[in-house]
Amino acid sequence: MALFARTVARLASVVAQYAQTESGQARLQTLEHARLLSAEYSRWADLLFDPDILDQLHWSDEAGRYADYGLHTDAVHLQMPARPTEPRSSPENEEEPKPIRITDKPPTLKLVTSSAGYLSLFPLLLRILPPNSPRLDRILSELESDDIWTEHGLRSLSRSSPLYMKSNTKDDPPYWRGAIWINMNYLAVRSLRYYSANARTPTDVASRAQKLAVRLSRNLARTVLGELERTGYLWEQYDDNTGRGQRVHPFSGWTSLVALTISSDVY
Question: Where in the chain are the domains?
Answer without folding.
Answer: 2-49, 118-262
